[in-house]
Every structure is written in C-alpha cells, then in structure tokens.
Amino acid sequence: MPLFILYAAFYFQEKVASKLFLIHAMFSLLPSLVSIWASTIEILCNLQYNFVLHNLYIQLLLTNHMSKITHVCFDIGGVANRELPREQVVSRGQEYFGQDFSGEKLREMMFPIIAKADIWREFQNGMIPAQRYLEFSLYTGGFAPSDQNKNNLRQLLEEWCGAPYQPILDLVDDLKRNSYHTSVLSNNNEIMYNTPGAEIKNRVDVSLSSHEILVSKPYWQAFAILRGKVKADSPGQVLFIDNKTENTEAAQSCGLQAFHFRSKELGMDTAFAELMEELKRKGIRV
Questions:
Q1: Percent of residues in the chain assigned helix, strand, coil, to nearest 5
Q2: What is the pTM of this model?
Q3: With b meaning 16 or more CB within 10 Å and e meaning fewer, what string describes 240-272?
Q4: What is d(CA 110, CA 258) in angstroms, rounded to the nearest whole number?
Q5: CATH 3.40.50.1000, domain 71-82+164-281, yes or no
Q6: Kind and range of the H or E element at 286?
Q7: What confidence score (pLDDT) does residue 14 get?
Q8: Per-residue pLDDT tens digits for 22-43
Q9: In the 8-state DSSP scheme, what is residue 111?
C-alpha cells in the first residue's frame, strides 16, 4: 500500500498535491511505518526533484522528530576538542617555516587547489594519502617537499588539533552508563584523526571519519552511513551534535535530530552549557 501511494504521487503530482492532507491523516494511523516511508521517499527524492514528494518527505521527518532519542553522535573539531588558537598555529608555523609564515600562508597550505582540484577535500575523503597531501601543501606554500618540511607540516597539523575537551568526554561516559548509544561522525583525515585531540573516538561505540567512509558532511551519504552503522530503528532516534550549521541542517534534512554546538560563537564552555540544557529539555538522562 505505501509503495502504491508513492508511485501515484510520482506520476500524478497535481492530483495528489491537492489531497496531501489525506496522506497526512494516514501517517497518524500508521506510526510504525513512519521510518520506512521516510526512507523510501528520501530515495525517490534523491532520484528526481519532485515538489510533491519533497513536501511529503518533510512531513514524515517532522513526525520522525517526535521519536525518543536513543543515540547521540558527536563531531570532533570544535566539539570534542579544544583547538589551538589560530594565532598560536601561525606562531608555530613561523618556527617551522620562517618569520614570513602568516595566517594567509597557513590558509593556502591547508586548503591547496591544484588544477582546480580541492586537495583538502580529497584528503578528507580518503582519495589521496597523507604524503601526497603534504607534498601538495608544501608546493602551494612555496616550500620544498623535503622530509624535514613534511614532518614539520605534519607536526603543525597535529598541534592545531589541540587537546580533547574533557566535559564532552565525561558526557560520553555518562551517556553510555545510561544505556545511550554513542558515536562520532567527523570530517577528518589520517593525520588529524590520530591525535590526542581526537580521543573521543576511543570512547564512543562507533567512530566514523570521512577519510574512512570516503564521503564528508554535509553530503547525505555520510548520514546514511552513520545511521547504518549505529543501527538506530529510525533516524529521529539519533541526536547529531556539530559546530557547523550546514552540517546540522543536513542532518535534519536526513531525518536526524540535531544540535548546533556554538563553540565558535560562544566559546567551548558556554556552548557546552547550552548543550546540557538541550539534553535535559529532550529528556536525555545525563
């Protein structure tokens, strides 16, 4: 029956659009099918942009957000670690590469573009190894790709990750003690993912990095992989915590509940206080 209605909506958009309220009424009668319907419509929406199906999908997601949270997923950068301030990173870079090293030089080397290719994105998505990324970065910065320079740049990236943010680590431990499933979904790479600042990956039940799953946030495939790995019964049972609105909005569009951790705007401690208030509001035991 659900598939019949979906196909009807797909081929007879105008007729179905005027009767969407009938479909909405069916949702209230069939709550156990909400997750299945949402997943099916999401697939169709990805295959073809369709106004009627999109509206139907959004209504399903709103219903799905009423789910009880059983899974909590964290980002790493700016959430689970306290990154080294940019000015300190530049200062360290000057020790490695000379006094002419600047914030602009750091940006150029971190995010090199070679022949219109986004090398940083390729590195994060596991398409190139660390050594190639370091070579491209040094080339962009005008430095020789010597072993010494590669080691210095690797060291700089590792230092930038800073230290783990203990309140989040303690929160993960509390959530696990209260029988919540915990996870990480991080845009990361083989250098920065293996630093002390990424300690949270050793605390959660499931940890996913973009360089391992070969796709990064905010692409919907990353959230689909997350849901498959954590085995939540419905996407609305997952609360996703990230410091970038583009990622939290993407998570919500995939049916997850999401919280914007505003560390950049407020600082780590105030953002954490906001998170704890939100967890209490949602009835999460911590």
A1: 60, 10, 30
A2: 0.78
A3: bbbbbeebbebbbbbbbbbbbbbbeeeebeebb
A4: 28
A5: yes
A6: none
A7: 41
A8: 444 344 434 444 454 445 545 5
A9: S
